[in-house]
Each structure stands twice: as structure tokens, then as C-alpha cells.
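Risk mitigation, structural track. In case the binding assays with fe (ii) ion fail to produce interpretable data, a predicted complex structure has been prepared as a fallback.
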Amino acid sequence: MSIIASLTTDHRNVDALFTRFEQADPSDLKELGHLRDLILEQLSIHATIEEQTLYPAIREAADDATDDVLEALEEHHAVKAVLAELERMSPGAERFRAKMQVVIENVRHHVEEEEGDDGLFAAARKHLKQPQLEEMATVAERLREAGPTRPHPLSPDQPPFNVLLGVPMAVLDRTVTTARKVIERTVLGKAG
Ligand SMILES: [Fe+2]
Ligand SMILES: [Fe+2]
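Fallback model:
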């Protein structure tokens, strides 16, 4: 499988979560909080994969792609900053849904650019060879199993520091994410 197919699947999956969030009953705080957790996790893993694999590879292979890669990194950064706020926010807070809507609009715009005719995925198809695209898909699968699951807007997003610091961060993240799921299951279990 190519990394592009893997990342495109992520885009569709996260958009399905966005639609669920937009259609959720605003008074169903449990559902809003649950969707926030899923969106946080999926976007954090997806951004890490792009930042550790595709983006640096495109930058190295295509001189004229540097500006687009830098803009994409800034867009990731802006989204992570809002996600980090959302992570600490109660789903019942007045600004909670508005804040998530900003994430949704920014990510949809970003995805449109990535997948567009002049976007980074097109640049990857043009400048990178199939074996490299497949090798990156393998790395992506490893990151899905062991990469950071929470947004870190202040951490490095370019190699080598994102790779070096990503590992200890991911271990801590997964402890937090697992604990959150256990709590949610326990609470929901009791409620049900
Ligand atoms: Fe991206
Ligand atoms: Fe993406």
C-alpha cells in the first residue's frame, strides 16, 4: 500500500467524525466529549505520520515544494494549538462547539489543499518512487501503533527532533489516552 492511500483513508475517517460531531445533539455532552477524544487521537496520529514521513520526503525530493510543506506545517500547528485547548475544555463550555468548528473548517481546507491538483499528495506522486511510498506506509502503520495520540503544538514538527522526542511523548500520551478510555468505559458502563 502507498502512504498516499493510507493518509487519504485517514482524511475520510476523520471527516466522518467531523460530520458526526456537527450532527450530534448539542445537549449530549457525553457524545460531544467522546467525539472530541476520537478526533484528537486521529488527528494527532495523522499529523505525526505526515510530519515524520511524507512532508520531509517531499521537501527533500522537490525544491519547489518547500513553501507548501512549511505552510502545511503551520496549518498543523494552528490546529494542534486549538486541539490542545479543546482537550482541557468541558464539552458543556460555551465555546466548546465553536472551537471544534474552527478545527473542522481548518482541517477541511488543509485536506483540500493536500489532495488538490497542486497539493502535496500530487507532488509526492510526481517526485517520489513507488517503493518509497510503500516504505513510508509501513512506517505509518508503526506510528499508528506507537506514535503520539495527543496534540503537542509546542513540540518540534520536523526531523530529526520530532522523531527523537516523539517516542517518549507517545508513551506518556498512550498512558493518558488509555486511562481516558477506561474512565469513559467505566462511566458509560455504570450509566448503561
Ligand atoms: Fe497535513
Ligand atoms: Fe493530511
